[in-house]
Amino acid sequence: xxxxxxxxxxxxxxxxxxxxxxxxxxxxxxxxxxxxxxxxxxxxxxxxxxxxxxxxxxxxxxxxxxxxxxxxxxxxxxxxxxxxxxxxxxxxxxxxxxxxxxxxxxxxxxxxxxxxxxxxxxxxxxxxxxxxxxxxxxxxxxxxxxxxxxxxxxxxxxxxxxxxxxxxxxxxxxxxxxxxxxxxxxxxxxxxxxxxxxxxxxxxxxxxxxxxxxxxxxxxxxxxxxxxxxxxxxxxxxxxxxxxxxxxxxxxxxxxxxxxxxxxxxxxxxxxxxxxxxxxxxxxxxxxxxxxxxxxxxxxxxxxxxxxxxxxxxxxxxxxxxxxxxxxxxxxxxxxxxxxxxxxxxxxxxxxxxx
Length: 355
Hints:
Layout (H helix, E strand, L loop, with lengths): L4 H24 L9 E2 L7 E2 L6 E5 L4 H13 L6 E8 L6 H15 L4 E5 L8 H20 L3 E3 L4 H14 L3 H4 L5 E2 L5 E2 L7 H10 L16 H17 L3 H27 L9 E2 H5 L3 H14 L9 H12 L7 E3 L3 E6 L2 E6 L1
Parallel strand pairs: 3-4, 3-6, 4-5, 6-8
Antiparallel strand pairs: 1-2, 7-8, 9-12, 10-11, 11-12
Helix pairs in contact: 1-2, 1-7, 2-7, 5-8, 5-9, 9-11, 11-12
EC number: 6.3.4.19
Organism: Streptomyces brasiliensis
Main location: cytoplasm
């Protein structure tokens, strides 16, 4: 008799991602071309070069999604010759968070994950509590991956999380890239992987229950003070009541379609950018004006980021103001952007620089 369907589903999702990681690691390994080439050794016989076994970490908060992911990684990784470890991040935002982090480390050790460690972070205030906690968490995970030499970090975001992300992007009015939600592969060199984006939250919780894996429900996830919590417990249920079941699946599908479109437009903008710059590298307004708005605004956004504007603080309204220097020029002055960046039209050229 095979495993419970929920357990089988999470293991299959992780197995597919681990296969991808293994193939990429073998292709990128400096000695990949030598793996079957004999080399001289001092001992008799023939030795063969072998690539180092990759290390994959799981980011585990102790919640059902990440515990299910940790259990699937611990089960699947050894069968593929992959080392598996786990990291939990203590944000220090709740009383007793250090003790809960220790419990999560203990559970990861019981699953056979090595290394298994807790990292304490200090959460700032920039961008709001949710964004600040996210920034601190990813910085800690990046540092852990570098320290241990990990090839990838698995994240437990589910299809439900994806649907929430799409709705939050829609509410911000930030454009098609926000509607594309979270990527299955992201970060520097594809470090972050999200195996559960096609699975719902209930599948992960069921997998934990049938395996008798204890989970911790973060009270912040039910706190109406947080936007995502209100969306999860009030917004999405209201949408499903009004529109019927299937809203989450439809939003997740929208994310994938939007990502495909956004990737294509980004590629177009990348190719078009060289053609709208003069010999000194300045942007020519007339050539920018001739481009489709979606392509032109991508070029403007990229130029602002290159000049020092923080990507997370650069919103659609900022780019629209800069775009009016191209499409609605009436002698207006410079546009101030986040990061002390200034955009100004000068003699038919658009200059974006540090103010």
